[in-house]
Amino acid sequence: ESGGWTASDVDRYTSGRSALHAAAHTGSLANVRYLIETVGCDPDAHSIARSDYGKTAIFFAAVRCRGDVVEYLLDACPRLRVNVVNGAGQSVRSLCASHDIPERVR
């Protein structure tokens, strides 16, 4: 039950980040699941915050070593764009490798 919230309600950007970005960044797997499965937020939506360089939820999770969130996103979102490079020239794969996230991402 989403309580009547829609993805567009939740994904209204505050400082360029969505609720899904915040949940992935803080490692709140329960909130990430809720936002994707119940609300329907787009896991490939990118942040428009100036200092975020176009990061998606999986970028935020990888940068903060949130392996469980990375694993969930990979399992729940089979079409997730993991080969995308952000504005700083980093890929999800390179971030996972440098932050000791599970091998399957690399």
From TrEMBL:
Transmembrane segments: none annotated. SMART domains: ANK (SM00248). It comes from the Eukaryota. PROSITE patterns: ANK_REP_REGION (PS50297), ANK_REPEAT (PS50088). The keyword Protease does not apply. Gene3D superfamilies: Ankyrin repeat-containing domain. ANK repeats lie at residues 15-37. Keywords: ANK repeat. Coiled coil: none annotated. InterPro entries: Ankyrin_rpt, Ankyrin_rpt-contain_sf. This is Ankyrin. The lineage of its organism: Eukaryota, Sar, Stramenopiles, Ochrophyta, Bacillariophyta.
